[in-house]
Sequence to fold (385 residues):
Amino acid sequence: MTLSRISKRISLALILLLCSLSLRAQSDSLQPTTQERLDSEPWWPTQSNRPLTAFAGSETCARCHKDESTSTSMRRAAVLANDATFLKSKPTQTFTSKPFTYSLASTPSGIGYTVSDGSHRFSHNLDWVLGAGDLGRTFLYQLDGRWYQSFVTFYTTLSALDITTGLDRGPANQLASALGQPLSPADTRRCFSCHTVHATTSQGFNPLHAEAGLGCEACHGPGLAHAQQMSSNPGPHPDLSNIFNPAKLSPPDSNDFCGACHRSFADASTSIASIGASSSAVVRFQPYRLEESRCWRETQDDRLTCVACHNPHEPLNKNSAAYDKHCLQCHSASAAASAHPANVCPKATSQCTTCHMPKVNVASMHGDFTDHYIRIVHPNDDLPR
Fold:
């Protein structure tokens, strides 16, 4: 092959690459952010423009949907501190980050939270416990009308306390400020919006009205009208127009729906900037990571959405073999006639995620996350961003 022909081929390859990057950038810029979804969609997770009176509560939903409403892991996303039971086996926990010592103690009135410098101490009862406990639980308390995030988190793998992810380990100036970090009103609403239901409604923010954990209406929207209609006139073909069904969303919309809390691709840039682009914590943003995958960018079909592999009505399945059937829908000889057939793995037909969706340790969270950026992983590869 002549040098001229080689040069032309290289030029053509560069042109195709630039076109591909340009199309990708255009596609990404067209993807709505969560805030745009909240303003335009009939229902979206964390939406706050509905009246409290429109919600039925998960107990009402459970009359017809008992299995779906009680078995989901998301129901454990938050609990009132007075109802928390995880400290029962170890009623007192302590942690020292000089010059302060922190302690959590289960008391008849709830969970007492204390910081001491050896000479003085400051205490406050906790109001909420956030987190299902798979990795940890963080605490919120209200003081003088303002909400605070605890400086310590209970990490499951440690079975102990350590500094809350993202907070500065440096010493505070006084005991009160050492106890927790003040949250802005916007951050407070975001915390409650992704861990509870209807803390914020068209009447404003009021966590006293919140349903602890992510109940049915977090994803399906206000359900009182639906419950009343089904109670009075269920019929063989009921009218379902007054309840939102996210299963009918297109693949990009479906991933963005989950991304309202788990970070969509359009929202990821802000989130990544806040934690540092080089941080392994980017793997926490599963919808974003999934949509970085080549297979997603080339197909965008419903076999690659969050709910294709994870049933939101069931506890998270941690058995890697349980996901093989989803991978083999594309990556198997029998999938050759499908709409988007893919290469067959030459190494194995089981435990696919252990190789192609590796676990990544996030040191600050004392735990591993499955990286949803599906790819061929080579030894000593850097974590792609």
Remarks:
- The mean pLDDT is 87.
- Residues 245-370 form one domain.
